[in-house]
Amino acid sequence: MLKKIKTLLAKPFFHSNTTIFWLWTLLALVAMTKLRHGHNNNFLVFRYVFWHTINGQSLYAEYPEYFDINHYGPVFSLVVAPFAWEPVWLGMLLWLVALAWLLFFAVKHSTLSTGQRVFVGWFCAHELLAALFMQQFNIAIVALLLMAFWAIESEKEPWAAFCIMLGTMVKLYGIVGLAFFLFSKHRGKLVMWLAIWAAVMFAAPMLISSPEYVVGQYAEWYDNLVTKNQGNMFASAQNISLLGMVRKISGVATYSDLWLIVPGMVLFALPLLRLSQYRHLGFRQTLLASVLMFVVLFSTGTENSGYVIALVGVVIWYVAAPWKRSRWDVALMVYALIGCSFAHSDLFPHSLRDNIIRPYALKALPIAIIWFKLCYEMAVRKYDAAEVEAEPNDLKAEPAKELDYNTSTIGKL
């Protein structure tokens, strides 16, 4: 039986980017079933950001058309504009398909090899579906970070700056893409374009409103984020992060999250002192993986659907290393798939999910373990081709690409 399964999985169908494209498109269509059950609240929130901007209304007030409050920046009004004109069902369909296709595009045109991209497609499919069910912009966040990394690898600093600033000015998460600054060969150019895109995106909503309105909305956005952060501490659907796991397990509300965030930032930054490793693609890709996990682990706003960001990072961590992964690493991947991706779904026992996993934010645990291991590896391991312990295969980084991290051939289509 096992032999038959291996033979089946060896067929080209399971190793094709085309298969992943249609699988992810199908997931977007499956997510449309939420509309039938009336669970399209997030899309309604997003949709009305455009109309409230057009009408000069507050973007951060409560409205009868939906529950919850918008937490995205004013520039999001232009991002969601193409999906706000159609009937709700059509706008939501286009929104979900666009999110799935955007992430597919970002993965397909990344610095990963074909086999690595397919691995991302299968491994992250369930988590992508969870995010699509919630119509979440987190899918676009991971896509923007992947594209920012690719753009810097390809010496396309204007596009890297665009992706970083768009993610930042919509949801702040994109700011972690500034870590890629260290790998840029045109840092002055990158800084210039970051400033240009920041100014453009700040002013862009004025095209459909007014300068006074937009400036006022940025002030409201700041107040909104401060209030939201304070309310996230013990929220069951929020703070599903390393910060939330520690706080919910301890039950203590009086300490500052900085006691965890500052050591986390130190751990994140320490490997970056290894300047000699910058020339290796595997090291740079591992930093990308670290960024994708860090932003989820150290944010009080992390939701269940945000783990599509972290899971992509987990796969990149696994495949980027030029050495043979151990059985413990394989076990961690299985743990991440079960304990993280499946933990909040109906695939997990309800009693365990509702009484232990959710109340204590244990979805963050496998990602945290992998991230700590990643930090250790980046601090002590060598990422050159000589470190490889097995024959190269399609899931291993390609040594030829590690010779010069500035080469424009890296990450080309």
Kindly describe this structure.
- With 413 residues, the protein is an all-alpha fold.
- It has one domain.
- Helices cover 60% and strands 0% of the residues.
- The chain has 19 helices and no strands.
- Helix 2 packs parallel to helix 7.
- The two termini are 39 Å apart.
Write the topology of this structure.
Elements: H1 2-9, H2 17-31, H3 33-36, H4 41-54, H5 76-79, H6 88-108, H7 114-123, H8 125-133, H9 138-153, H10 157-171, H11 187-203, H12 211-231, H13 242-250, H14 258-269, H15 281-297, H16 307-320, H17 327-341, H18 350-357, H19 364-380
Count the domains: 1
Biggest pleated sheet: none
Whole-number average pLDDT?
A: 89
The arrangement of helices and strands along the chain is HHHHHHHHHHHHHHHHHHH
Helix content: 55-70%
Content-based structural category: mainly alpha
What is the 3D form?
globular
How much of the sequence lies in strands comes to under 5%
Give a nutshell description of this structure.
The protein has 413 residues and is mainly α. The chain has helices spanning 2-9, 17-31, 33-36, 41-54, 76-79, 88-108, 114-123, 125-133, 138-153, 157-171, 187-203, 211-231, 242-250, 258-269, 281-297, 307-320, 327-341, 350-357, 364-380.
Name a few traits of the molecule.
413 residues, mainly alpha, 60% helix
